[in-house]
């Protein structure tokens, strides 16, 4: 089980292939690396570092030492030199276990460190072989049984823990250099002295032959294995007191008699260190090495050191180890410790593992992919190599499953040896959390604190607490420190990402009791010294792979029974131990016996790719201990398909075969392949290597802020991937400018960078560089662009793209990923809050949330181009596109559910030719949406348009045949291949050769019956009004705004349209309108016209033929009914609301360019909207007519012209426009101007004529002005009534309005003067009457104000009656508009005192019956609301019937509220409702 694996997946088989082979070729390639600068590994090294003297080779310390020589590209001194064995004899103790007779005992050889030598001393002599120099070793001491503290001492201080305890993977032998040449002696001199004696070298090395990379594997069985000279194994003894030692004879016998042995022993039984010795005692290790695998690098190194110490030999003589980035083996060793990945890598060059005669697979219970794959491989290999012995061992192994797997058959399983007991007994205590809520951090922390307190009372000894993750470790440490204010204990964290310096503290004993808070890195393989007690939370962060979402999951889960036993086995090694489990015994019993093997919860893409490349057959047939589920295999193939590695049949593609040669994860390999094609290999090599190793950036909890700041400076603002390149360049410059190795290392640590991890990163880059050069890939010399780098990365990360969710709030995941997942950006990323709409992530991992790590912005165009083979396309809305001449559809492309693009117009014929053909015929040929000059099409469309025109005019939709009939015609004639314009033309060339009119339609084909009675005269195309010819358009579309006949009105002629003429429509529609009007009459009147069609036909013959009467249609119809039917009716008898909309003229106003400005059936509404603009346009035309300009005059003070013309002609583009002249008031003078609107001209002319009379009557006006002083009091009274006082700015304004009102009643009485004679005649008549009329008007106003001044006083008594006050104020506002003395007609103004008196009486009687008053008010409002709505729609346009209706409303108020005042005409609510209906319709 692996916990807190926040780095790259260790379950991917190919990701572990960066291990180096132990062959001699590796040594040659290592020497060749001296020619390259690894920080610029893509160019030849030109200059040495200043810190390295010329001619000398720098010494690079080990992982924890100072110096960064590895990143300088200069190979280090061998970490373990060839030992110099002493020739001194060693005394043999009688208590030692003697070696078997088959293998003579060898004196102990003790190695000594090699002194630094000069480069010349490292040169290999061509004529003298070099071998080990033996020296006499001192006598061996008899080892006694170790005391507990001694045992701790021998197991402490291992190398720092690697990334989440990574397991090594299969390794390929290092390829030759890119030039394919052997290295020269000078290159070897640069490379340094080999770590073990080498055979004689030829002084003139030949160029090695290039051969297939599997050639060695094919010929390995036939090639004899040359065993190197072994270093002597000194006499040794087994560790006393260990359970394994007690059963040594049984184990030795089982090894000798069986090919496979299963050894299951509890933790602490000594199986890891004693089994290699038992194998040597059984005679193994003579025909080959004893290989001993461990799942982690730290375990391999620590166990090797421990065994070497027990054998009293130096590491590298008898016992060595080989792990990733470190090789401590020589040719003379007998026992080789290694990771399981190293052993798998050796199967590439030694398929039958001839170098080994015994293999010990330790910690097999972890069931990693490497272990499962290795066990399956050995299952097949054992049948070929009967001499090979395999020992499977672990503390919590599923013995039955393993025994059956390696047995000959079901009845003959492999033997099992159970090693029970331990060094010291362990007591297991169950302390379940009370509420059984393990996810509650506070409760869990409290339980840990209580358990620690309980163990402190049990006795002395260190405590190991197992926690699921780093966050829980920090919280537990904080809780425990609060409970230890005296600082009596050391609280130490232990997890994989912990810096090496802090990890080393865990393996050093101190004076205080220690509490080690660890993840499951301390569960197996390594031993924390001094541990006596264990606290097991029962939780672990388990890595799983989601087959559905294709993401890694690192969720906290309850551990299995086997894992719990492993944890309890960590204590009881120094004294009696206690393990406290923070869960119940019942819970323990319910848990699964063993942890799910990694192969059951991992992505198998790399495994499948590797097996196919090695020819190991189908993964389904491979003899795994526990076969992966079919879903996992399908998922692996899906990932490989995403990378273009496999075809539809599951075979390797060219890309797949290329990727299988690279020792990294297939996704990273795919990136490298794409980078080689995109000239971005240099950058992507660095990025891929960085993603495959543990992040060199450290983040100590106590210095988190400082680390984040330091890392932020080394990050790229646009891409987390490019941060790797930036970091690489920074380290390169730092190493180039370094003063010493120690200072360089200190600089890295100040930047929170791990030199050890940087060293590993550099090694992987060099390994990948060798590989890609071996494949012939070119390294780019110019820097790659952002697009080149990230397009290369996208090829391997198409399943890790994300799109920002527009609808996401701040609490929801902001990004949507492939297959419907939703995720956050990892908060530690500098791009967390800066990412764009589309991103790509190196990985998406589910922990507390689903996080995307190492992200960069991408564009959907890149995704579309790179993921073209994965994009699923869908097409919607297929339709004909006239411009392209083909059927198109909207294409949408999705990548795993993400919409990469949408609404893209593409040709649809290749996707569905049958439907495209149908759409082409219907929309292009039948509906006519086709740009073609083909004779058949032009002919057919002309016929169709003629028949449709008849339908529109006659309003008969049944003349033209259905579209289905036309479609059937084309469908029968056209070939099946015709689906667009191009295919139609190609088909026509052949089909019309014999019959040119094959596709011609006839009138009989298109018409159901003849349209008799329809002539063009009845449906004219134009109509002339005011000298302007206006077009008429006909539409038959019931319910449409343009249904019926539409008059196209130029903007300048809008105010000149004769509404009376438009009521008659056109002759072809007059009969229908007359029938509809007669049918709208009441039944008592309508029955006199039966049969109605005959009457309509007669009316049409009388009035519809010839010139249209210049009267309203209703007036003519009423007269005709009276004459023909002796029937008397009024306009209100006709219910115009019952008429269909097409029986009213529709008006469309256009500008000078023919663009529609507005369209409506109400001419008054159009004039209110566009009347002013039309007037400006018309006057602009008049100003361009020279003749009109000559007739117009300015600065007129008297009637200086003869007769005012009623109309004026304006000529424009061959048309004669009619204008209406009018006098315009300019204050002291007037002018003669022309207007287009008769109503506007009349209004302006009235004001201008009034001004002309005032100029001529200035003496009379001056006299009247002096005699109106009595109005001063009336003006003061009006101040109490705001509705009246707002009409007057001051006293002079009031007098002016009184005089103008008098002029309106005298000089401007109808008819207005039209010529000079009429003007002066009216002037003389006015001189004698003007003063009297003005005085009478003034008195009326004074009387009115004396009554109106009472209204505000009465309203003050009804402050709580809001509705009453609002109604009275609104009525006053309606009665007294601006300039009411001038604008209100004399007849109506004479009734004002009565209207005001009615208001006063209403207010006086209101208290008697408020409900009655409210009821009457409601009745009035029902009539006033539609009236004022209609007035607002007209926007100032006057309509006489509306003005008359307003005064009738005022009379209705008098009738309802002051009936005693009487009304001149009978009024009632019902009567006014009828009047309004007639006005409305």
Share of β-strand residues: 5-15%
What is the end-to-end distance?
88 Å
Gyration radius over CA: 53 Å
* Shape assignment: elongated
Helix content: 40-55%
Question: What oligomeric assembly is this protein in?
Answer: single chain
Largest sheet: 8 strands, mixed
Strand order of the largest sheet: 6-5-7-4-8-9-3-10
Counting H and I runs of at least 4 residues, what is the number of helices? 53
Low-confidence stretches at least 5 residues in length (pLDDT < 50)? 1-224, 435-441
β-strand number: 34
What is the mean pLDDT?
78
Which structural class do you get from the secondary structure elements? Answer: alpha/beta
Could you please describe the fold and organization of this structure?
The chain has 1481 residues and is of the alpha/beta class. Helix content is 40%, strand content 14%. The protein contains 53 helices and 34 strands. An eight-stranded mixed sheet has the order 6-5-7-4-8-9-3-10, with helices on both faces. It has a six-stranded parallel sheet with strand order 11-18-15-12-14-13, sandwiched between helices. The radius of gyration is 53 Å and the shape is elongated. Mean pLDDT is 78; it is low at 1-224 and 435-441.
List keywords for this structure.
1481 residues; alpha/beta; 53 helices; six-stranded parallel β-sheet; eight-stranded mixed β-sheet
Concise description?
With 1481 residues, this protein is of the alpha/beta class.
Fold topology:
Layout: H1 24-32, E1 36-37, E2 40-44, H2 148-155, H3 185-191, H4 215-219, H5 243-246, H6 248-257, E3 260-265, H7 271-281, E4 289-294, H8 297-310, E5 319-323, E6 326-328, E7 335-339, H9 340-346, E8 356-361, H10 369-384, E9 389-394, H11 399-406, E10 416-419, E11 426-430, H12 441-458, E12 462-466, H13 470-482, E13 489-494, H14 500-506, E14 513-518, E15 531-536, E16 539-546, E17 551-558, H15 561-568, E18 577-581, H16 585-590, H17 605-614, H18 630-642, H19 654-659, H20 666-677, H21 681-692, H22 704-713, H23 720-736, H24 741-750, H25 755-774, H26 786-794, E19 801-804, E20 815-817, E21 822-825, E22 838-846, E23 850-857, H27 860-866, E24 872-881, E25 886-895, E26 898-907, H28 913-926, H29 935-954, H30 963-973, H31 981-991, H32 1003-1006, E27 1022-1025, E28 1028-1035, E29 1044-1050, H33 1059-1062, H34 1067-1079, H35 1083-1086, H36 1092-1104, H37 1113-1124, E30 1146-1150, E31 1156-1160, H38 1163-1183, H39 1186-1191, E32 1208-1212, E33 1215-1225, E34 1230-1235, H40 1238-1256, H41 1258-1266, H42 1271-1278, H43 1282-1285, H44 1291-1305, H45 1316-1348, H46 1350-1356, ...
Parallel strand pairs: 3-9, 3-10, 4-7, 4-8, 5-7, 8-9, 11-18, 12-14, 12-15, 13-14, 15-18, 17-22, 21-23, 29-30
Antiparallel strand pairs: 1-2, 5-6, 16-17, 19-20, 19-22, 20-21, 22-23, 24-25, 25-26, 27-28, 28-29, 30-31, 32-33, 33-34
């Amino acid at each position: 089980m692996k916990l807190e694996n926040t780095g790259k997946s260790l379950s991917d088989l190919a990701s572990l292939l960066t291990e180096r082979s132990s062959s001699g070729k590796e040594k040659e390639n290592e020497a060749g690396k001296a020619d390259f600068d690894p920080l610029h590994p893509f160019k030849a090294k030109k200059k040495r570092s200043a810190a390295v003297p010329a001619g000398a080779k720098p010494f690079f310390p080990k992982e924890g030492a100072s110096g960064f020589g590895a990143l300088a590209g200069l190979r280090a001194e061998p970490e373990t030199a060839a030992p110099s064995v002493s020739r001194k004899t060693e005394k043999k103790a009688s208590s030692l276990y003697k070696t078997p007779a088959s293998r003579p005992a060898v004196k102990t050889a003790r190695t000594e460190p090699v002194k630094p030598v000069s480069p010349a001393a490292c040169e290999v002599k061509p004529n003298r072989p070099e071998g080990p120099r033996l020296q006499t070793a001192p006598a061996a001491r008899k080892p006694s049984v170790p005391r507990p503290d001694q045992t701790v001492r021998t197991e402490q201080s291992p190398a720092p823990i690697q990334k989440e305890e990574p397991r090594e993977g299969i390794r390929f032998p290092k390829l030759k250099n890119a030039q394919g040449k052997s290295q020269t002696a000078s290159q070897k001199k640069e490379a340094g002295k080999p770590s073990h004696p080498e055979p004689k070298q030829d002084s003139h090395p030949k160029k090695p032959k290039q051969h297939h990379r599997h050639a060695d594997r094919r010929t390995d069985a036939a090639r004899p294995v040359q065993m190197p000279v072994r270093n002597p194994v000194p006499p040794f003894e087994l560790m006393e007191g260990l359970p394994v030692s007690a059963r040594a004879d049984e184990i030795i016998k089982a090894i000798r008699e069986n090919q496979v042995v299963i050894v299951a022993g509890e933790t602490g039984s000594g199986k890891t260190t004693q089994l290699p010795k038992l194998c040597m005692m059984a005679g193994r290790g003579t025909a080959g090495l004893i290989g001993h695998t461990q799942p982690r690098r730290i375990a391999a190194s620590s166990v090797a050191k421990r065994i070497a110490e027990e054998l009293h030999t130096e590491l590298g003589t008898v016992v060595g180890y080989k792990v990733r980035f470190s090789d401590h083996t020589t040719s003379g060793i007998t026992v080789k410790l290694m990771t399981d990945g190293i052993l798998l890598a050796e199967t590439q060059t030694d398929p039958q593992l001839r170098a080994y005669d015994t293999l010990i697979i330790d910690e097999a219970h972890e069931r990693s992919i490497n272990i499962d794959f290795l066990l399956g491989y050995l299952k097949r290999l054992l049948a070929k190599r009967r001499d090979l012995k395999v020992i499977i061992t672990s503390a919590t192994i599923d013995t039955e499953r393993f025994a059956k797997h390696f047995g000959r058959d079901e009845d003959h399983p492999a033997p099992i040896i159970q090693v029970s007991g331990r060094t010291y007994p362990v007591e297991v205590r169950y302390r379940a959390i009370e509420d059984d809520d393990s996810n509650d951090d506070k409760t869990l922390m409290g339980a840990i604190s209580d358990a620690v307190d309980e163990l402190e009372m049990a006795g002395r000894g260190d405590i190991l607490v197992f926690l699921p993750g780093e966050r829980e470790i920090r919280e537990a440490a904080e809780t425990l420190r609060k409970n230890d204010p005296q600082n009596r204990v050391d609280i130490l964290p232990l997890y994989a990402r912990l810096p090496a310096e802090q990890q080393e503290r865990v393996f050093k004993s101190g004076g205080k009791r220690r509490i080690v808070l660890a993840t499951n890195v301390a569960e197996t393989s390594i031993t924390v010294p001094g541990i006596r007690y264990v606290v097991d939370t029962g939780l672990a962060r388990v890595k799983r792979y989601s087959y559905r979402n294709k993401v890694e999951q690192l969720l906290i889960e309850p551990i299995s029974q086997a894992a719990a036993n492993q944890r309890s086995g960590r204590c009881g090694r120094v004294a009696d131990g206690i393990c406290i489990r923070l869960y119940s015994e019942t819970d323990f019993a319910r848990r699964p016996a063993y942890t799910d093997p990694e192969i059951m919860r991992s992505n198998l893409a790399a495994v499948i790719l590797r097996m196919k490349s090695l020819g190991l057959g189908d993964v389904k047939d491979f003899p795994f201990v526990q076969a992966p589920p079919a879903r996992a295999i399908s998922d692996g193939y899906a990932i490989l398909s995403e990378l273009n590695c496999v075809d539809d049949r599951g075979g390797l593609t060219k890309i797949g075969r290329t990727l299988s040669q690279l020792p990294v994860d297939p996704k990273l390999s795919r990136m490298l392949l794409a980078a080689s094609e995109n000239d971005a290999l240099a950058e992507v090599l660095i990025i891929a290597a960085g993603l495959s190793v543990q992040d060199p950036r450290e983040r100590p909890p106590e210095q988190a802020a400082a680390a984040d700041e330091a890392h932020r400076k080394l990050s790229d603002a646009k891409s987390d991937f490019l941060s790797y390149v930036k970091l690489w360049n920074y380290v390169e410059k730092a190493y180039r400018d370094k003063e010493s190795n120690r200072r360089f290392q200190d600089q890295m640590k100040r930047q929170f960078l791990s030199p050890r991890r940087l060293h590993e990163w550099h090694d992987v880059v060099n390994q990948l560089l060798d590989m890609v050069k071996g494949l012939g890939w070119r390294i780019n010399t110019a820097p790659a662009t952002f697009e080149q780098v990230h397009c290369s990365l996208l090829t391997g990360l198409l399943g890790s793209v994300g799109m920002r969710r527009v609808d996401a709030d701040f609490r929801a995941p902001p990004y949507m990923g492939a297959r419907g997942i939703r995720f956050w950006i990892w908060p530690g990323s500098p791009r967390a809050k800066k990412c764009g709409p589309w991103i790509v992530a190196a990985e998406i991992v589910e922990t507390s949330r689903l996080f995307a790590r190492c992200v960069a912005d991408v564009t959907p165009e890149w995704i579309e181009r790179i993921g073209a083979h994965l994009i699923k396309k869908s097409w919607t809305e297929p339709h004909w596109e006239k411009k392209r001449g083909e059927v198109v559809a909207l294409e949408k492309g999705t990548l795993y559910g993400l919409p990469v693009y949408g609404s893209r117009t593409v040709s649809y014929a290749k996707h569905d030719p049958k439907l495209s053909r149908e759409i082409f015929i219907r929309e292009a040929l039948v509906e006519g949406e086709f740009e073609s000059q083909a004779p058949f099409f032009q002919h057919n469309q002309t016929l169709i348009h003629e028949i449709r025109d008849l339908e529109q005019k006659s309003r008969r939709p049944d003349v033209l045949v259905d579209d289905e009939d036309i479609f059937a015609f084309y469908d029968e004639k056209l070939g099946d291949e015709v689906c667009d314009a191009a295919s139609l033309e190609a088909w026509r060339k052949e089909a019309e050769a014999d019959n040119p009119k094959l596709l011609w339609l006839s009138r009989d084909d298109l018409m159901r019956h003849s349209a008799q009675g329809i002539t063009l005269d009845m449906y004219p195309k134009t109509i002339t009004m005011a000298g302007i010819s206006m077009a008429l358009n006909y539409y038959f579309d019931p319910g449409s705004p343009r249904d019926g006949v539409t008059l196209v009105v130029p903007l300048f002629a809008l105010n000149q349209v004769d509404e009376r003429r438009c009521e008659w429509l056109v002759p072809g529609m007059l009969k229908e309108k007359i029938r509809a009007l007669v049918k709208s009459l009441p039944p008592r009147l309508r029955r006199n016209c039966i049969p109605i069609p005959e009457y309509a036909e007669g009316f049409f013959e009388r009035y519809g033929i010839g010139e249209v009467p210049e009267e309203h249609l209703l007036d003519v119809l009423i007269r005709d009914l009276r004459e023909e039917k002796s029937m008397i009716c009024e306009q209100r008898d006709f219910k115009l609301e019952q008429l269909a909309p097409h029986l009213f003229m529709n008006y469309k106003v256009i500008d000078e360019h023919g663009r529609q400005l507005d369209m409506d059936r109400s001419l008054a509404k159009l004039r209110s909207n566009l009347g002013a603009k039309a007037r400006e346009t018309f006057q602009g035309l008049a100003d361009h007519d020279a003749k009109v300009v000559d007739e117009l005059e300015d600065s007129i003070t008297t009637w200086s012209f003869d007769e005012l013309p009623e109309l004026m002609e304006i000529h424009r583009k061959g048309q004669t426009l009619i204008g209406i002249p009018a006098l315009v008031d300019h204050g002291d003078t007037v002018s003669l101007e022309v207007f287009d609107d008769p109503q506007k001209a009349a209004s302006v002319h009235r004001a201008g004529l009034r001004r002309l009379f005032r100029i001529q009557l200035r003496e009379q006006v001056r006299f009247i002005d002096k005699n109106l002083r009595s109005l001063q009091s009336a003006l003061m009274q009006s101040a109490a009534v705001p509705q009246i006082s707002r009409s007057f700015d001051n006293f002079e304004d009031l007098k002016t309005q009184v005089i103008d009102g008098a002029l309106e009643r005298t000089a401007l009485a109808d008819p207005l003067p039209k010529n000079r004679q009429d003007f002066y005649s009216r002037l003389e008549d006015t001189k004698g009457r003007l003063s009297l009329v003005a005085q009478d008007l003034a008195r009326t106003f004074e009387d009115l104000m004396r009554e109106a001044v009472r209204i505000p006083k009465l309203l003050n008594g009804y402050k709580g009656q809001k509705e009453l006050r609002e109604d009275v104020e609104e009525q006053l506002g309606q009665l007294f508009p601006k300039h009411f003395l001038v604008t209100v007609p004399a007849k109506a103004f004479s009734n004002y005192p009565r209207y005001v008196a009615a208001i006063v009486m209403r207010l006086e009687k209101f208290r008697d019956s408020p409900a009655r008053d409210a009821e009457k008010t409601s009745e009035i409002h029902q009539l006033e609301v539609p009236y004022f709505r209609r007035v607002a729609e007209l926007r100032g346009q006057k309509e006489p019937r509306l003005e008359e209706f307003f005064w009738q409303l005022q009379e209705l108020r008098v009738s309802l509220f002051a009936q005693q005042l009487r009304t001149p005409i009978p009024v009632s609510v019902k009567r006014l409702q009828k009047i309004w209906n007639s006005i409305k319709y």
